[in-house]
Design goal:
Blueprint (H helix, E strand, L loop, with lengths): L2 E6 L4 H4 L5 H7 L9 H10 L2 E7 L1 E3 L2 E4 L1 H10 L4 E4 L7 H13 L6 E3 L1 H4 L9 H10 L3 E4 L14 H11 L5 E4 L6 H10 L3 E4 L10 H8 L6 E2 L9 H5 L9 H15 L6
Parallel strand pairs: 1-2, 2-5, 6-7, 7-8, 8-9, 9-10
Antiparallel strand pairs: 3-4
Helix pairs in contact: 5-7
Length: about 270
Amino acid sequence: MNTVDVWMQHPTETFVKQPWLASLLRWMGVEEFPALPVDFTLAAMQAAGVGTGLCAAWCGPQGWLITHDDVKGFVAASGGRLKGIASANLYEPMQAVRELRRAVKEDGFIGLRVVPWLWNLPPDDRRYYPLFAECCELGIPFCTQIGHTGPLCPSEPGRPIPYLDHVCLEFPELVVVGGHVGYPWIEEVLSMARKYPNFYVDTSAYKVKRLPAPLVEFMRGRGRTKVMFGTNFPMIAPQAALAGIEELGLDVEAAQLFLSDNARRVFKLNLP
C-alpha cells in the first residue's frame, strides 16, 4: 500500500521562526525546529511506510513562510515522493489567482491550502472566493484547517458551520478537505461530510489513537470514503501518527481507503 499523507510541510528557516509555533513546541516538549534537509522528511516518511506526502506552501498576512519555489525545490529533491500544494495571499486576490494557476499548470501542484486562523478570516470571506472559482476551473481541492487552533489564535474561523457550509452551498463543484479533524465541532464536521458529496476530512495534527470516537465510527461505516490520513509533519512524525492504527477496528477496505485510496481519488494522484 502506498500510504499518502495529505497534510504536511517541509519547514524552512522562515517557517520555524514564527512566534505562533511557541505553543506547539511547548506541547511537543521541544525548544525549536531546525530547518531540515529534504532527506530527513523522506526518512521519516519511509520509517512509517508513507510513500507520498502532499507538501504545502504557507502564506500569511506578513508574507510567505514557505514559497511556491521552496515547495517546487522540495518536490524536485524528493524523487516524486512529495507533491506540491499551493498557498495564497488573501490580501491580493487577483495575484493569488494568477500564482495558483501558474503553480498548477506549470509546476504540477495538485491543491490549494489556506489556513483561516493565520489570517483570522473564515473561508466564506469574500477574499477567498476568486480562489474557489479558480480551484473549480483547475479541478483541484481546496484544503483548509477546521477545529480549534494549536497556536494561540482565535479558533472561530475554523468552525465548519456556518462558514464552510456557506462555501459548499455556493460552490457545489468545489472539493473541500477539512484538515485537523475539527474538534470540538465533531458533529458539525460529520454533518457536513454527510450533507456534501465534495466535503472530506483529514486526520492531520492527531495521532490515530487520539481520534474522536464519533469520527472513528464514521470511518468504519458510511464515512469510509470521506476521511484521509494526514500528519501535520513535522509537528507529528508519520510513525507516531500511525501508531495503534490496528486499534481503530477498520476492516481491510476501510483502512485502504483511509490510508491511500481516498487521497488518490480526491487529489487525482497517479501512483503505483
